[in-house]
Design brief:
Largest sheet: 6 strands, parallel
Structural class: alpha/beta
Oligomer: single chain
Radius of gyration: 18 Å
Number of strands: 10
Length: 272
């Protein structure tokens, strides 16, 4: 089981010498529970972390959070439509190239007649987006990818693509709950249909329900997964890309095998 994060042992090493990840019990898209409080004398300092394994900040109070990744990392920012992915990526945009499917859609809409429904050319737009993403992954430099994270086939494709490019793959999930996500759509005047929203909601709930399953990260081809809720996402103030990662997951880690990810899942690294 993952235990709540605390700056007392935020490098992942506990008094008993073992490593733990942070977080609350998994309850789907609306986690509950009381977090362990940070020490008062450290509450104003940013928590600087090089994510490894599963780090769960849902329900945890504290100071700003700075995430640090290798300079060749690909980081997928996932969540329901309206959960705040675009806002977070805009905040992090100075650090890396951003791959956003809306940019591809906007470019295609500009070329198409206004009377033509988007559904007609959606498959071509998605194909072009995947080509754009694939080219970006093959080029050097850090990447931030905007994706709902709910589609298993897309997660598998990203895992294969980053492995072939010898890039570590990380994921950040904004688990804000469906009501907050719908409110976000209303505030931004960007709406997903009820059918699309429900599909993404089911996909994310299935992914989150597997958080405590041994082998999850290896199956997904991930080096780390960081979870934020509505409050903690506002503290995700900064992301940095720097040191090359020595870790490149083997190809077997994205197969149907269920073995061999315990060490990844139980490790949290902090950079001070």
């Amino acid at each position: 089981m993952r235990t709540p994060l605390s700056t007392e042992h935020s490098n992942g090493v506990q008094p008993d010498g073992n490593t733990r990840t942070g977080g609350l019990p998994v309850t789907g898209l609306s986690p509950t529970g009381k977090p362990e409080l940070h020490r008062e004398d450290e509450s104003a300092l940013p928590l600087r972390i090089g994510p490894q394994g599963i780090l769960d900040f849902r329900g945890t109070p504290g100071s700003d959070i700075w995430l640090s990744y290798p300079c060749n990392a690909t980081v997928v920012v996932a969540g329901l439509p309206g959960s705040g992915k675009s806002t977070l990526l805009h905040r992090w945009s100075p650090a890396a190239t951003i791959i956003d499917p809306r940019a591809t859609r906007t470019a295609h809409e500009a070329r198409m007649p206004s009377w033509l429904p988007y559904a007609v050319y959606r498959p071509w737009t998605r194909l072009q987006h995947m080509r754009w993403t694939h080219r970006a992954i093959r080029r050097p430099g850090p990447l931030l990818i905007h994706d709902c994270g709910s589609r298993a086939w897309m997660r598998r494709w990203l895992a294969r693509s980053t492995q072939h490019a010898a890039r570590p793959l990380h994921m950040v999930i904004l688990d804000v709950g469906p009501q907050e996500a719908l409110s976000g759509q209303q505030a931004r005047q960007r709406f997903a249909s009820q059918r699309v929203f429900s599909v993404h909601q089911r996909g994310l709930m299935k992914l989150l329900s597997d958080l405590d399953r041994t082998g999850l990260l290896a199956d997904l081809g991930l080096t780390s997964m960081v979870l934020f809720d509505r409050d903690s996402r506002e503290r995700a103030a900064q992301v940095r890309f720097g040191v090359l990662s020595p870790l490149v997951l083997p190809k077997a880690s994205v197969s149907d095998s269920r073995t061999g990810s315990a060490d990844l899942r139980e490790t949290a690294g902090e950079v001070r």
